[in-house]
Structure formats: structure tokens, C-alpha cells
């Protein structure tokens, strides 16, 4: 099927990248000696000797001053705006403005992030006798030893693109870029029986190639524009051809798993000066799983793109199809959509019964859990009942299915979960096929409200009086107050009331209590202020609010809202306090912490990681509601550092925190994790549960919590889920596959094993 050439431009990320490229000074570098370096500020790059590809930094325009390093087309015949990025080091790793990329003298590629002061990505080839790097004409960056053996190559760590000559083996995946970590992801891989498959999240396969059933196949794109599955002797066992296959006028091709979840083969059309899709895996874009997310019904436009339509005006929620929330005051009615197929996303399974069209509608109407239903009749009349708020679908005149969506007849009842927050009016206009981010939405609104309250409308303080009371009545525009060291001393009563490590209780005007943290570290003033301003603008009900700071000489203090009650580790240690931590409470704490970290990762203007998530940094208020503190500042080697760090580290820390809550053991070392995993694998999950928990546990929640914890602590960072996914699993709106053993790293993303695991454990485990 032909997709018009604007196709590429339609992808928002692609536009960002094209606009954002800032490569200028080129160095032709067929051979790159040890010690060679590229930096953001120098704008330099390495270019393959035929001039077709360049490796250098680029910026992504929706994240100011965040850069990635990658390989893009650099040919003179391709205009700058069309110089697509084909490989990115570390996939989604971004770095600050003073960062550099170096082939170090010990033979490894290192991406050094200036904002964190640490390497954030390496090729992990130190001590492997690398003597130089070469940038080959096919776009492959390779590290070679004295005998010219390839020790490492960029072709082995693909991001979303496959170039001609590159293999995608059975253990590798292409992953669609996503605009943020909240997004669900689409991936491409070869399954263990040799089928090429497109998958959504970890469980839904929405496209499978034909072909024979042969193990250990790899995907290969030929120079002439054929996509093949090859066996170990490089013999093709299955092929598809782009429509310009064998067209000699095409000089450049690539295969990409696009942001919209479709796999496309692109060719450079010289006369048109643009990329054209010569083949796409899912012909009808509306058949890509969850293409419209919760934003309506997918209708294929004349140009072949997916058009997400909302059949009625959405006034109360940002979901299109099911504003019905089980609380209708004046009854419900059903709206009918002809030629429309609907399916639930969380969970994806519908319950199916044999019924007539009329019965189908009645079944849903009579069932208070039912939100929508689809009646299909191909052979036998079937009614599939959806009991979830997350419904999506597609419409086409050729489809015989008829769908029903439940609506409140009268005014919408108030959703209790949202009463504390203003509901934004969503225009009925629908966005590009973006993906779903349900879990954090609510909290975003809550946060907006808090932000509104937090803003104090007052003039900038121009007096230099050092009165604590005055200081707190008039915070700066961020809601943050700058305090002098003497103010800190006076409000803490000369640090007499210590409430934690380097943490002191203090009071300001009207006995407003605060907790003052002494960072005890010499962070550069400019960096410290930058970090404080960033953190000060973060407001979430499960994050302890930063109210002020002190940055004077070498003093660095943070002033937080004071949360009555103790930290989680105190609760776990103390036998009386611990009794309050029932199973339900522990699950609530997991959920609150997950939402808070998810919020940090995805809802702030810049990415913020916690960096030091552990029980002592989770405080429980009077109602045992969890509030996470000390985010954005973390200790590395005893030195406080600021912001940065990786999302993956937080995810791992969260996994350990969950295990701590479940087991009651404060030291979640590898041994404990391995033991817990073994117990789980052998269906003895209850053995790991803290014996002090009173009032019983919920086995289903336990299974879910253990699974997600084991995913989080995967030693291979790429296997760890995003915090958004974690939050959804914890609150039960997303299913999770059985996790592989956390401490094996030899074969990243080993699809074969994962599939085996699924079969092995699904019968034993209830979720
Ligand atoms: C990205 O780089 C381009 C080219 O140098 C520049 O015009 C643009 O402002 C940059 N964007 C950001 C967000 O830094
Ligand atoms: C590399 O070798 C040096 C000296 O033999 C050793 O100190 C260092 O730990 C090694 N590094 C790695 C990553 O193996
Ligand atoms: C791709 O795989 C084939 C055989 O499976 C091998 O001969 C070739 O070297 C591989 N290419 C790369 C770039 O790894
Ligand atoms: C690979 O996919 C095919 C088609 O969906 C399926 O029949 C087969 O069972 C899968 N193989 C494995 C090992 O999962
Ligand atoms: C597939 O590859 C693995 C690892 O290289 C090997 O152990 C296995 O025997 C291969 N299977 C087949 C059917 O060739
Ligand atoms: C739905 O409820 C009505 C009234 O309670 C009943 O008459 C009807 O048979 C029910 N329909 C189905 C399909 O259960
Ligand atoms: C009926 O056919 C449609 C497509 O024609 C298909 O998507 C759907 O799954 C089928 N339904 C059943 C119940 O087989």
C-alpha cells in the first residue's frame, strides 16, 4: 500500500528531531583513533568516508538543552530537514549542554553527562583490546581490535531503525520512539518460532508475518529494498518487497518502527526530495493496536492515515468513549454506533456471550459494570461486554459489527476520585495517535490545583531585612523562599531538634512547622539554585513540598513542609507502628509512591529523578498516606549531587521498596531478591510475606506486586518498565507478564525465554 510522502513529516517526534539537528563541523572518520571526542558545544561530528552518515549530538526541541548522540543520514543529496536519525546511543538517554562523547583510551565509547557529572552510557568494552573505531559506509559504527575483529557495533544495539545490511536477531527488538516514558510502547521482534511480530506493551501482538516455522531467524533489509527473514546460513525463508524494490534510482532506504506503531520501509525519492513509505506492515493504520488510545474511534482517512474521532462531545473527562463512570444519577442509556468495533485496553479481555443484537444492548445496560459492548455476527452472533473505562476502537463501512456505549441520561454524576481537582474542559478535537497515560492523569490535575494555591500573589521582596516571618509571608514567584544561614539557625532553634539524618524540625511564623535538611555538601551555587527552582515548582500530593532553601557561602539547606509522623523505615522497625501497616495500607503506600515517582519522571517540565528512593525517604502522615521526600538530590559517594540520575535507578529502587514492604526485611540485597524470586517461581509466594501483617493478605495483589517488583529490579535496565507502567500495574489497571529472573543479563530482551516463562508460570499464578 502506498503511503504518501508527508507520512514521515506527520510523525511529531520526527519533526522535533529534524528541526533539532545541530551538527555542523564534520570530521571524515573512516578510522577513529582512541581518545577522539565529540562535544555538544563544539557541534562537531564524525562522518562515514562516503559522506552518507554522520554521528553527532542533536537536540530534541521539546526538551530545552537536552541532547542525545546518534547517527543520521548526512548525504549532500538529502536536505538537512530530512536527515533522519537512525540510531541513538542508549535509546532515550539525554544529556546537558556541556556533555561529550568519547572513545576513551581504554577502548570504550562513553557518553558523559555534564549535568550529572557521570557517564550515562558506555559501550562496555573497556579492557577488550579495542584499538580504534571505524565508521563504516553502511552507517555502522564499530569498535575493532588489533586483528580487526569487531568487538562492538552500533548495528547490535538498534533503536527504532534498521539499515540495509543490519541484522535484527532473535534476541533483539526495535522499539518505537515514544514522546515520554508514560507512553506504552510498540516493539518489533522475531518470536521463537520465526514469525516477525509487532507487539504493544508486553502482551498484545497486533501483527504477525507469514512464513515457515523456523527457529533462530534474523531480520534483514537488503539494499534493493526487500525485508527478509533469514536463517543461520543467511538464506531468506520469507520476504516482502517494497513497491520500488530493485529500483536503482533509490540510493537510501531504511526500515523503521514508527511512533504510530506501524512498521514501514522508507526510500529516498531524489526528484521529490523526500522519504516515501514503500511498504507498511499493517495496511490499515486503524488496525494498529490502540492507535487512537482512549481518544475515540479510528477512521481511516483518504490519505491512509488514522483519524481519531470522538462521536460525542467530551466535557468531563479526557476519555472519549466512556464518560459513564458507574455513578449516573438519572439512569443510563446506550448510544449505538453502526459499523464500529470497540475493544477494551485495560484489561484487553472482553467477556463474550452468544446473543442477539437487542439482547447485547440490554445485557450491557443491565450490568452496572458494563461500559460498552460490541455485537458482531460472522457466523455466530456474539456480544462482547467491556467492563473497563479504557475503551478504543475503529469504524469502517465494511465492518458489520455494531457497538454500544453507555452514557448517563441526565447530567453526569461526580466522579469521587476527581472532586478535589478542577476538571479541564477538553475540546472535542482529537490528538495524533498518541498513547495512553491514564494512571497519572488524575494526579496531574490535583497537582495543578495545588500549584495554583501554592502561588502567592505578592510583590518581590526588595527589603533585605532578615526576618524569618517576613520571608515566609512572601515567597518568590516559584513559591520558594530564600533564607539566610542565620534565619535557618533561628528557625531550627540552633539545630536543637533533630528528626532524622541531617534533618531538623523548625517553626516559622504562626507555628508553621518545617523540616530543614542540611545537605552538608558543596554544590556549586548556580547548580544548586537551578536544582532548587526545578524542585520547588513540583507539587504533588504524594511528594513532600519544598518551601524554601538556603544557599549562602558553603551552606546548602532545603526547607520542606513538615509532615507529622514517621518515615516508613521507622514504621517497619517499630513493632507497634508496624501493626498499623496492614496489607491494604502497604499496597496503598506502593501505589502512592509509584504515582509520585511517575509524576516526577513525566509531568515536570524537565525530567526529574528521585535518585535516592528508599524507606527512610517515604514519610507517612497522620492517615498513613505516603509522601516522598528528598527527591531531586541524591548522594553519590557521600557527596550530595543534584537532579539528573536515571529513571531506571528509581525504578529499581522502587522495586526494592516494594519488596521491603512485602517482606518486612529492610535489607533488600540480591540474596533476598533471589530468594523471593525463587519462592514466587515455585508458587510459595506467601512465604515471602511479612509475618507481622495482621488481617490477611490479598493473593492477587501479592502476585501483582511481586511480578512488578521483579520487573523493576531486572539487572538489565532495558527490561525495567517505566514508572507510568509500574503505577498502572500497582493500581491494577494494567496486567503484567511473569518476570524473568532478575539477575541474568547475558541475553537482553530474550523473547524466547519470556515466552517460555509465560507458558511456564501462567497456569500456576492467578494473575
Ligand atoms: C536546537 O538546535 C537548533 C539548531 O541549533 C536551535 O535552533 C534550536 O533552538 C535548538 N532547540 C533547543 C530546544 O535547544
Ligand atoms: C581494566 O583493567 C585495569 C587494569 O588491569 C583494571 O584496573 C580495571 O578494573 C579493568 N576494568 C574493567 C572494566 O574490567
Ligand atoms: C548478519 O548475519 C549474517 C549471518 O547471519 C552475517 O554473515 C553478517 O555478518 C551479519 N551482519 C552484521 C552486520 O552483523
Ligand atoms: C510465534 O507466533 C505464532 C503466530 O502468532 C504463534 O503461532 C507461535 O506460537 C509463536 N511462537 C512462540 C514460541 O510463541
Ligand atoms: C538457536 O540458537 C541457540 C543459541 O545460539 C542454539 O542453542 C539453538 O540450538 C538454536 N536452535 C536451532 C533450532 O537452531
Ligand atoms: C434487563 O433487565 C430488564 C428489567 O429488569 C429485564 O426485563 C430484561 O430481561 C433484562 N435483559 C437482559 C438481557 O438481561
Ligand atoms: C468478525 O470479523 C471481524 C473482521 O471481519 C474480526 O475482526 C472479528 O474478530 C470477528 N469476530 C469474531 C467473533 O470472530
UniProtKB/TrEMBL annotation:
Gene3D superfamilies linked to this entry: Bulb-type lectin domain, Hepatocyte Growth Factor, Phosphorylase Kinase, domain 1, Transferase(Phosphotransferase) domain 1
Protein kinase domain sequence ranges: 485-767
Pfam families according to UniProt: B_lectin, PAN_1, PK_Tyr_Ser-Thr, S_locus_glycop
Annotated Gene Ontology cellular component terms: plasma membrane
Class of the enzyme per the UniProt entry, highest EC level: transferase
Known EC number: 2.7.11.1
A GO biological process held by the record: recognition of pollen
Top-level taxonomic group: Eukaryota
Keywords associated with the record: ATP-binding, Cell membrane, Disulfide bond, Glycoprotein, Kinase, Lectin, Membrane, Nucleotide-binding, Receptor, Repeat, Serine/threonine-protein kinase, Signal, Transferase, Transmembrane, Transmembrane helix
Keyword Transferase on entry: yes
Location in or out of the cell: Cell membrane
Transmembrane annotation, as ranges: 435-457
Signal peptide: 1-29
Membrane-topology annotation of the record: Single-pass type I membrane protein
Domain Bulb-type lectin: start-end pairs: 31-156, 159-278
Residue ranges the record marks as coiled coil: none
Domain called Apple: residue spans: 328-408
Reactions that this protein is recorded to catalyse: L-threonyl-[protein] + ATP = O-phospho-L-threonyl-[protein] + ADP + H(+); L-seryl-[protein] + ATP = O-phospho-L-seryl-[protein] + ADP + H(+)
Molecular function terms from GO: ATP binding; carbohydrate binding; protein serine/threonine kinase activity
Region (Disordered) location: 732-767
Keyword Kinase belongs to the record: yes
Family: Belongs to the protein kinase superfamily. Ser/Thr protein kinase family.
Name of the protein this chain belongs to: Receptor-like serine/threonine-protein kinase
Species per Swiss-Prot/TrEMBL record: Senna tora
